[in-house]
Amino acid sequence: MQLRSTGTMPTPPWHADTVTGTTSFALRFTGYLYAVGLRDAVADLIARHEPLRTVESAAAHLVLAPEAAPIPDLVPVLVTPGELSRAVDEFVTGPMPTASAAPVRARSFRVLGGLDDPAEHLLVLVISTHVTDRISPARLARDLMTAYAARRRNLPPTWSLPRPVHPLHVHELRRVELIEDALSLVERLATAS
């Protein structure tokens, strides 16, 4: 498996929406996706990065313990290619969690295709800009895929090991693509329809 970025890396705060204080990015998966492993990998990512567990408000700055941080429900939402653009747009522009929740939302979409087509999944993450001021989406995506590769083998991720020079091999997953701005994906899908 190889993680490829589809865009250039802008300066922080990364495609931020200044009205909602959020930023979004997506990972497109081609091939079989182990949904339980993906959920566990997102939990590992939240546990690894303190900003993903940090609740900031005008009155307080609270860092949740890794076991107390809420984990997004990643049961894939089934959508047709024509519905994907609207579904991603509704999710990305939807409300962030309440002030007492961690500053991350995620949703997995399964794009329905023909019987002979490889499975297509899209994982969309919406996070508060205070997170992307500290950690880039590319770094989050790399750590997520490291955790997913480990969870696919029913192992916890080993963060202390250096990243391999060769692409990570995840059984039955053909390709993973980082889309740095989920709303730009919505625009591309809308023009393709």
CATH class: Alpha Beta
- The CATH architecture term is 2-Layer Sandwich
The topology string of helices and strands comes to EEHEEEHEEHHEH
CATH topology: Chloramphenicol Acetyltransferase
Residues in helices, as a percent range = 25-40%
Spatial sequence of strands, sheet with the most strands? 1-8-2-7-6-5
Number of strands: 8
Radius of gyration: 16 Å
**First-last Cα distance:** 29 Å
What class, by secondary structure content? alpha/beta
Strand content: 15-25%
CATH superfamily: Chloramphenicol acetyltransferase-like domain
What is the subunit arrangement here? single chain
Task: Give the helix tally.
Answer: 5
Shape: globular
Specify the biggest β-sheet.
6 strands, mixed
Mean pLDDT across the residues is: 77
Number of self-contained structural domains: 1
Weakly predicted, low-confidence segments? 1-16, 163-172
